[in-house]
Amino acid sequence: MTVRVLLADDQEIVRTGLTIILNTQPGIEVVGGAGDGRQAVELARRLRPDVCLFDIRMPGMDGIEATRALAGPTVPEPLAVVVITTFDLDEYVYAALRAGARGFLLKEAGPDLLSQAVHAAANGDALIAPSVTTRLLKAFADADPATPRQQPIEALTDREEQVLVAVARGRTNQEIADELYITLSTVKSHVTSLMTKLGVRNRVEVAMWAYETNRGRRHW
Predict the structure, then answer these.
(1) Which positions fall inside the HTH luxR-type domain (predicted)?
(2) How many percent of the chain have pLDDT more than 90?
(3) The dihedral formed by the CA atoms of 91, 95, 96 and 102, expressed in degrees to the nearest 10
């Protein structure tokens, strides 16, 4: 199955470069491009792509607002949005994750990582680049305990705690299955159970919960 991708970046040269890279990857097709968030939202609603790749800083409606419009908590059928950024631990990345983005990539990500990220997003996996997962989540967990995270509605099992830490480290379902010697379907069941118990919407929020409650930091 071909994964249909929508790109949004205010720099045409970046859009062109990403389009070329993605269109040469197996099973990926770029179906549209936008120069600002408003146009990206309009295109996304019309084209219903499998994955949206949005830059954060764009004129008019930025990538965070666009993400919230397409993947926020009030959206009945949210799209998979991934933010792409130069990343320097800035608050916009965190805000984008809070707005519903499944994760983020660095703009210098190579073709292989970009391809893996798109396929992972289409499959429902989180797109937290492993090289920056700890830095991002720990920095914000340390910087601001704004509203304390609620505790699980039901205690986590030992296995769920293990899966929680793996998700916080940016591992995909397959990598978790390999590390814990369990089946892929078992991992998916644990992740679903975690989201239910933690009252979160996706894997990125699972990871943020882990760091904000010290679970993630205890294992580094």
Answers:
(1) 149-214
(2) 45
(3) 110
Mean pLDDT of the chain: 84
Query: Which structure tokens are listed for 67?
Result: 């993400």
Report yes or no: 53 and 18 within 8 Å, Cβ to Cβ. Answer: yes
| CA 118 to chain CA centroid, nearest Å | 10
Q: Which two tokens stand for residue 196?
A: 């239910």
Task: From 31, 30, 10, select the one nearest 107 (Cα to Cα).
Answer: 10
Classify residue 102 as exposed, middle or buried by CB count within 10 Å of its CB (0-12, 13-18, 19+).
buried
Q: Measured between alpha carbons, how far is 137 from 143 in angstroms, rounded to an integer?
A: 10
Given strand 80-85, what is the order of strands in its sheet? 28-34, 3-8, 51-55, 80-85, 103-106, 127-128
Q: 39 or 210: which carries more pLDDT confidence?
A: 39
Of 38, 32, 72, give the one whose Cα is nearest residue 52: 32
Supply 44's token pair.
């996304």
Q: Could you say which DSSP state residue 180 is in? A: H
Backbone angles phi and psi of 53, in degrees to 5 = -110, 110
pTM: 0.74
Q: Please report the domains of the chain, with CATH numbers, ordered by start residue.
A: 3-139 (3.40.50.2300), 146-213 (1.10.10.10)
Both tokens of 109, joined, read: 């990500």
